[in-house]
Write a structure and sequence with these properties.
By secondary structure, the chain is an all-alpha fold. The chain is built from 15 helices and no strands.
């Protein structure tokens, strides 16, 4: 018993630096942001020292703001569109590279390059590619698919699809890697038994691959939702939330309120709305995973 207690204390000592680091770097900013969201903190009140308790007025102001509602709707559209493209194409590529052929590993490694690139670099690269004189318009005009350059980033109709395409290019390898890992963990003898019983490729996919890949699919969708829903750098670099709020998302709205209008209270409130949305998604994921483990 003494030896176990000593080992437990040693474990606590080794984990304490990491715990304190997490509290300082993540815990304190989150708590302080919640405090600010209940205060009337602006650049004027902060300098004058008249910051006071504002109750729920910041949240009411944010939730009733038409720009916030537009940003929330854009965030949902952006997230769902990216998930559809990233997951579907990533799943197809995972099934492809799960097959045993000579170039499977080199090609899979080549596709991962887009995922490991910094998001700011990707945003700048696609921003120039989709400019009026960029390579996308150049190729489309040379192939006679369009007669004049398309305003990819300056049109209210095309800005959001352009940003979705860019983020999907980054997210497809991430989905492919996680799904390919899940596919590799499925025993091959299960497929062999199904083939002996006369099950075709489609039935093997429906009754074997999808059920055994359920947890991996759920993890990919939840992680993809979290990473996409909180997007900031990609949208900010490519469009800045424009044109005319066509690509304004919750993170850029919060940034604008805090660091352009210097209304830190409403900026913190909008950031907390984003936090609550992601927190609820995390709770749903934990509940679903716990239900699957209980069923097993």
């Amino acid at each position: 018993m003494k030896e176990r207690a000593r080992e437990r204390k040693t474990g606590y000592l080794f984990s304490m630096p990491a715990f304190l680091f997490m509290i300082a770097v993540i815990g304190f900013p989150v708590i302080y942001n919640w405090i600010i969201s209940f205060q009337n903190m602006t650049s004027r009140t902060f300098n004058a020292g008249t910051v006071g308790f504002a109750g729920l007025s910041n949240y009411i102001e944010v939730l009733t703001d038409s720009d916030f509602q537009t940003a929330f709707f854009n965030t949902l559209v952006y997230t769902l569109a990216c998930l559809v493209f990233q997951f579907s194409i990533g799943f197809i590529l995972a099934l492809l590279f799960n097959q045993k052929f000579r170039m499977a590993r080199p090609l899979r490694g080549f596709l991962v390059i887009s995922w490991i690139m910094p998001m700011t670099v990707v945003a700048l690269m696609f921003k120039y590619m989709f400019s009026d004189s960029g390579i996308i318009n150049y190729l489309l005009m040379n192939f006679h698919m369009i007669k004049e350059p398309v305003e990819w980033l300056t049109s209210t109709k095309m800005a959001m699809p352009t940003v979705v395409i860019t983020n999907s290019w980054v997210g497809i390898p991430f989905n492919m890697l996680l799904l390919a890992t899940g596919l590799s963990n499925i025993p091959s003898d299960v497929y062999e038994s199904a083939m002996i019983d006369g099950a075709g490729g489609f039935k093997r996919f429906i009754y074997i691959t999808l059920p055994l890949l359920k947890q991996s699919i759920l993890a990919v969708l939840v992680l993809g939702f979290v990473y996409t829903f909180k997007v900031f750098d990609l949208v900010y670099v490519m469009t800045g939330g424009g044109p005319v709020n066509a690509t304004e998302v919750l993170s850029t709205y919060s940034y604008r309120e805090s660091f352009q209008y210097f209304d830190f209270g409403t900026g913190a409130a909008s950031a907390n709305v984003l936090f609550v949305c992601l927190f609820l998604v995390g709770l749903v994921y934990i509940k679903l995973m716990g239900k699957d483990e209980a069923d097993e």
